[in-house]
Amino acid sequence: MIKGIAVLVAIVAVFVMCMSCGVVISIVGVVEPTPTARVMQPTNTLGSVTIVPQATIIPATVPVQVHYALTVVAVENPTVPGIFSYPEIGNKLVAVEIILENIAGDMLSVNPLNASLVDSNGFVYSVELGGRDGQIATTDLNVGEKIKGWAAFEIPDNAIPAKIKYELSWLSGEILQVDLMK
């Protein structure tokens, strides 16, 4: 009992010291996400452009709240390279047209560098800046705002795009993901 009181006194003392310095301490509980988004089957195939709607949310280190949405509009495999993009021999450019939306979260800073592509063998590819004209812009989205644009990736000729991931903020571990193979 005395040990428990000593611990409580120590916690209160640290709290009082932090408050006197202007530091705010908050105790936060972890709320499990309740994803409402779902992956749907492709609805239309037009030549090399596959229409794949909606997104799934995958928890990483920190549970992702359902405040943001990633939707895939089209996949071009291969795509016509942008004016300054030249894939290496044995590689191709794949472009994914996406919509990012801030449904109800804090401001979302959109950056094409937060997107990555995973192939059917699990290899991850970073975005190729300027890889396709119409690249998604770098901007901030407030609640209710969304943006549409392309993310291009240089991958081996024999690689099959399996999913696109978008990290909500740099090194946050909060990821939106869409399966491109369904």
Shape: globular
CATH architecture designation:
Sandwich
Distance between the termini: 58 Å
* Count of discrete structural domains: 1
- Roughly what fraction of the amino acids lie in strands? 35-45%
What radius of gyration results from the CA coordinates? 21 Å
| Class based on secondary structure composition and strand pairing | mainly beta
Q: How is this structure best described in words?
A:
The structure is a single chain. The chain is mainly beta. It has one domain (30-179): Immunoglobulin-like. The chain has one helix at residues 2-20, and strands at residues 44-46, 49-51, 56-58, 68-76, 91-102, 108-110, 115-119, 124-126, 139-141, 146-156, 161-167, 175-179. A 5-stranded antiparallel β-sheet has the order 1-2-4-5-10, with no helix packed on it. The chain has a 5-stranded antiparallel β-sheet with strand order 3-12-11-7-8, with no helix packed on it. Strands 6-9 form a two-stranded antiparallel sheet. A hairpin with a 7-residue loop joins strand 11 and strand 12 (175-179). The longest helix is centred in the first third of the chain and has 19 residues, at 2-20. It is globular, with a radius of gyration of 21 Å. The relative contact order is 0.19. Mean pLDDT is 74; it is low at 1-64.
Summary keywords:
disordered N terminus; 1 helix; 10% helix; mainly beta; Immunoglobulin-like; five-stranded antiparallel sheet; globular; 12 strands; 182 residues; single chain
